[in-house]
Amino acid sequence: MTFFPTVGDNATHAQSRSKVADRTTTPWGSPPGGPRREPAPPPAPLTVTMLHAARSRGFISGLPRHARGFWGGFFTFLSFCLFKTHRGRIVPVAARSALAAVGETRPWRHDAKVVSDRGEKLRPLLRLRAALSTLEPTMAPWSALCLWVVLCPCLGGAQISPSTNFTNFNLHPEHIPYYLHGRPQETESCVADPRCPYKRHLSRVNSSCWGYEEGCVPRHSFRFPVCSSSNTAWANSVEAAEYLYWRQADFGYVKERMGELKTLCRARQTGDSSLTCVKYTRYCRATNLYVDLRKPRRGTDRFSEDFFEAGEIGGRCDLDAAALAAEGEHKSPLQSWFAELQSFTQLERQPEESGRCDLVVETPTYFMKLDAGVNMYHHFCDFVNLYTSQHINGSFSQDVNIVMWDTSFYGYGDFFSDTWSAFTNFNITHLKDYDQKRVCFREAIFPLLPRMRYGLFYNTPLVPTCSGTGLFRAFSQHVLHRLRVAQEWPKADKVRVTLLERSTQFRRILNQDELIKAMKTVSWLEVRLVDFNSRHIGFVDQLKVTHNSDIFIGMHGAGLTHLLFLPDWAVVFELHNCDDRHCYMDLANLRGVHYMTWMKDSLVFPQDKGHHPTMGEHPKFTNYSFDVGEFMRMVILAADKVLHHPRWPAKRRHEEL
Predict the structure, then answer these.
(1) Which residues neighbour 285 within 8 Å (Cβ) at sequence distance 6 or greater?
(2) Residue 300 burial by Cβ neighbours in a 10 Å radius (0-12, 13-18, 19+)
């Protein structure tokens, strides 16, 4: 069988080309082999129809019918497999798109109406491709083939990324099916796109939900708390206790907040402003928000309650002023956004249209009122609530601005600033950076706050005997994944012990060297002493140590907040809780790691009774020595918990062997 025309067939093929020319036109000019009937019109926006027309001409039409199927598919693959329209953008596709060149005439699933924002860069290459189609019939077949082989890599280099950019998810692998569960569009894209890296997760999408979605059942939720017993003061059964704990501090908390969302200022038409909040304005979402900072009333108060006057914050929407005023019961700097939004004003004209916006911020913006950037416990209340707010907002994108809402003229110290990169790709902005301007924010989020009543996780009342929330485990995984902190699997015969040293004035371990020496006498304990002073070790490096610890030991203090980033099988040992047992025990239960603390008061020796600057005697303001034998007994108990945990990697590897 011959796949190229012979010399004797030239006349026949010329006649064939003429017939094609009589009935075929393309947006870029007259067909080859026929007279020009009229001047070529200017290039039109690229559509799928044009792509079909371009590939129906040229060299392929000059081949015998029996050869067109093979070479039609071959050349179509070379020239067009690199392009496909998808949701209005031109994107790379798999080789199966080439089937359309050999008789498939159905329109593509998502027809492109116009070239996307990068289309102008692409258009010269498309013109070149059309010109080559015009030249093909006049060229020797092998010359045409060589030309396409040489030029196709160049033309293919002008690809435009898919509208679903899977690499931008940047989510922990375990979170992928839960993320896709409520996003059928992204799921369909992953099914259709052979380059989607998450295909192995697709089988779990329908049976995976965070817990707050409509119709999500506990057995499909990310994780559900476990209670060892019920307390009649809280619940009359274990199942009721678990459900209550889930509502208090897990994805049930997210579900309740989402159920409270209420529109306080309704857009009149597309492009108008809006304001939607949960109860007591603890979380709000605004669109096309107008903020006038030309005359900022800055002072020493970080969260001034009269920072705005009427007309200085608002938008064009129908404001329910009475409904907004009714949400002020929790008015307090770190409990609600009512003080900031109580002056929200209904504007009669869109600020941008009326020229009132000196600056338009297109990127979604999160405003943050921070607790304390120098204390890990308090600062991670900020981060946990930000992550929880992302669930309410339904987006984990890092293409967002984060603005510190601070009405003072001070700066802000932050020992844990590396953590922000888990939430944004940009530098943190201070509200005062917008001073002297009228700023319009396309989308603004006022997230949950760190000291809300019954909020997370400062002084949260919790059902006792319960532990293991999916929300805190997901937060830990999310931050570690985005900060690229990996688990270095423990050796089969070693348990990794980290003792946190304090370089502060109080709560130091007076016989620390003696305790370290005792632990090192146990051959299967791998012991290290660390001082997480930010001047000596960066926060990401601190997390690498924590996440690769099986037993984490420390005195009562903010450094124990590192327990959030321990592996699931780890034990946190609060060496002395200084009469504040519930603080880190509750946090460990929320995270789902085992908690221990010193139990025998007769075997711990305070340096003195403690000297608080104003309160007098206080156990947090002194230093301690510990009985070595009792200390080692508790360390061995902790190690036993690790070794028998079902998720302990060394145990799983041993069972596999």
Answers:
(1) 275, 276, 277, 393, 443, 444, 445, 446
(2) exposed
Report residue 38: phi and psi, to 5°.
-160, 160
The pLDDT assigned to 499 comes to 98
Per the CB < 8 A criterion, the answer to whether 620 and 556 are in contact is yes
- 10 vs 138, residue with greater confidence: 138
pLDDT score of 543 more than 70: yes
Nearest residue to 451 via CA among 556, 557, 395, 380? 380
Q: What is the pTM of this model?
A: 0.76
- State the alpha helices, DSSP H only, in 42-198: 48-55, 65-80, 119-135, 141-156, 176-181, 184-192
Please answer whether residues 592 and 467 qualify as being in contact, where contact means their C-beta atoms are separated by less than 8 angstroms.
yes
Give the count of beta carbons closer than 10 Å to the beta carbon of residue 157.
9
Beta-strand ranges (E) seen in 364-505 are 365-368, 401-404, 429-430, 438-446, 466-467, 495-500
Tell me the C-alpha distance between 273 and 286, whole Å: 7
Phi, psi of 129 (to 5 degrees): -65, -40
Report whether pLDDT(506) > 80. yes
Alpha carbon of 165 to those of 170, 195, 313, 386, 479: distances in Å? 10, 10, 35, 24, 21
| Dihedral sign computed on CA atoms, order 227, 228, 230, 236 | positive
CA 333, CA 548: separation in Å to the nearest integer? 37
Distance CA 287, CA 623 (A): 53
DSSP assignment of 579-607: T-HHHHHHHHHHHT-EEEE---GGGEEES
Q: What are the structural domain ranges in the chain?
A: 7-156, 166-256, 262-446, 485-656
The C-alpha atoms of residue 43 and residue 129 are separated, in whole angstroms, by 13
Find out whether 328 and 343 touch, Cβ atoms under 8 Å.
no
Burial class (CB in 10 A: 0-12, 13-18, 19+), 570: buried
Q: Which residue has the higher pLDDT, 167 or 361?
A: 361
243 pLDDT band, cuts 50/70/90, is: very high
Q: How far is CA 229 from CA 234, 236, 471, in A?
A: 11, 10, 22
CATH of 485-656, picked from 3.40.47.10, 3.40.50.720, 3.40.980.10, 3.10.20.740, is 3.40.50.720
- Identify the pLDDT of residue 13: 39
Q: How far apart are CA 284 and CA 270, in angstroms?
A: 20
Q: Which residues of 254-267 are buried (b: 16+ CB within 10 A; e: fewer)?
A: bbebbeeeeebbeb
Averaged confidence pLDDT in the chain: 81
Per residue in 376-407, pLDDT (tens digit) is 999 999 999 999 999 999 999 999 999 999 99
Which residues lie across from 529 on neighbouring strands? Answer: 499
Residue 498 vs residues 515, 526, 568: alpha-carbon distances, Å: 12, 8, 16
Quick one: which H or E segment has residue 288? Answer: strand 284-292
Using pLDDT thresholds of 50, 70 and 90, give the confidence band for residue 69.
low
Residue 29 has what DSSP assignment?
Answer: B
- Angle of helix 119-135 versus helix 141-156 axis, rounded to 10: 180
CB neighbour class for 599 (10 Å; exposed up to 12, middle 13-18, buried from 19): exposed
Strand partners, 573: 553, 596
Compute CA distances 629 → 435, 516, 626, whole Å: 61, 12, 9
Digit-coded pLDDT (tens) for 123-141: 444 444 445 444 444 455 5
310-364 per-position pLDDT tens digit: 999 999 999 999 999 999 999 999 999 999 999 999 999 999 988 999 999 999 9
